[in-house]
Protein: Indole-3-glycerol phosphate synthase
Amino acid sequence: MFKTVLMIEKALSDADVELVTTLHGEEKVSFVVLMQPRGKQDELLRALDDVALGHLDQAVHEHDDGEEAAPTLAGESLEHSLRHLQRAGAEAVGEVVEAHPLARLREVVEENGADEVLVLTSPHFVEEFFHRDWASRARHEVGVPVLKLFASEA
Structure:
């Protein structure tokens, strides 16, 4: 069985689940999903990404759902994603990572003997340009192949 650590920042769509579960053909895959929601500290970067993508309306209207809603939303998104992966025939467990995501990623890779890390995110042009995105930073931390995939917009 192929062991994958999947780092996400929002709930997986059907297209995302199909993408990550079919990467290795017919081989069975187990996932440890780390949900690392983007926090308030990333609002400026998200606004710059929205401008770069031509989504000016989103850049102007950054949503603030309140600090108490974020953990609940992250937990619900994680549970939704785990159910969808399991429905697709994959083994899947996971957790929400609030602080030190790269340190936790390294621990999870070591604890599970992971074969790879998949980072599934929306495009983050500013971070990618400066190699500060999760995938670029993880490549220096985990000691296994790291593949960056873009999440579906659905």
